[in-house]
Design goal:
about 70 residues, alpha+beta, 1 helix, about 25% helix, globular
Length: about 70
Amino acid sequence: MATTMYFEETIRDQGAKATLDVELGRSSFYNEDSIYLTVDGKMVIMDRATAKRFVEAVVAVGQYHGMID
């Protein structure tokens, strides 16, 4: 499986009550390149339709908070 990782971090809750190990990137494991997401060691490779909705949702949240130009 060819992958390119774009994000890898232990995300800490603002209240310091919980953490998640998160990794995000691209995968060519299946015929159709797509996004993989790993959270606390559990990985999924999204189909393209799900990946598109995921990206649109993340961008929308980023725009709402003024994090995207």
